[in-house]
Amino acid sequence: MQVRWLLPIGIGAAATVQVAHAVQYMTVAQAQQAAFAHAARFVPIAADIDTTALGAPAGWKPLIWRVQNASETSGWFFEDAVIGKSELITYALALDASGRITALEVLEYRESHGGEVRLAGWRNQFQGKSVADPVALDRDIRNISGATLSCRHLTEGVHRLLQLYAHVLAARR
Amino acid sequence: MSGVRRARPWLGTIVDIRVDGVDTPRALRAIEAAFAEIASVHRLMSFHAEDSDLARLRLAPAGAPVRVNARTYEVLEWSLRIAAVSDGAFDPTVAAALVERGVLSVPRSIFVPAACADWRDIELLADERVRLRKPLWLDLGGIAKGYAVDRAIAVLHAHGAIHACVDAGGDLRVAGTRAERIAVRAADGGIFTALELSEGALATSTSGNAQHMQGASRHAITAGITASVAAATCMAADALTKVVLANPAAAHTALRIFGAQGRVHEPHRGWRALDLAA
Question: Which chain A positions have a beta carbon within 8 Å of B234's beta carbon?
Fold first, then answer.
């Protein structure tokens, strides 16, 4: 183990670094290829989503693709986002033709501090910015150690997509 | 080469794996295998999953030897070692008290845990068998995440990935000789550039919401304290953060024994070092 501490000691030197931490893990296209290596086509699907019936937040609108090999449906692919206290997570879920999860990947992770992520101002700071162009960042920092992030929102998001599949998409095979 | 980085939900958090310096197909195979290993640790050591080793111990009569997976056995060995050097400040048997406080939900069990049971009542027998001398519920929440990170690093190494970082929601380990700069998030949300680390691990725990408890006294730990520990393995770093939170003043011995270094942040005192070598 090689360690060089950089933390300021004592209250006087307690200068907080403002970080808007963002990581892009995969693009949608990469996640699609990884999940369906032999898939022929990804057909975007427009679905009328009754958010109340699914217990989803108003305005929830995941992107949905039917995955087709020739004329057969070989599975489904979703891109969705979930919002936590200080984080915004974009993720991809892949289901096989029978609705079984075959892949779940985080696509993008963004977090900010000093405010609730639901505040419009907080979210607007990311508008039009790519992950490669973070808001304010010590560029050398690639990981943050700290109060363990919960995956609860992500888990809830996956459950919503499975409900959507069961109630809306399963009949469309 | 910028490396390949993937993240998936495991261990109740989001696990981020990055591999640098090998070609993409090879990095992806290594990452896939590392996630599979993390999934195994997750299933074996989950408190709530009905088929975890911990659940099997709750469903066997206390006093009967139960065979567990070699990984679970290894984590229990380390848990007892850390419990011993911390005088029980770290204790993998606090689950019953956490259930009582509503931090964990009530698990399925054929016995009621004894209030007086502690880590000394866990007996590790030959052939990866475990015997509970008193009825008790095991919870490896304070160490299994670090162990999963260490196992993932081992799997990445086996796949030829030398430069890598595995980060389980802030408990992380850096493999390779290149120093990585890492920030720490304190309990108050402030983020500090914390250290440069290579070939080692860093874990951070914060007190609050009563999820941490002083092992020996079963008292909840004062909220708002942040403990960061750097150690050779993530398992040691993870468990030692709980020792530091339980009693910063008494954590010296445990840190020294494991060659670890610690930092503590308190709202009105800022950061301070816990090790004399700092």
Answer: none
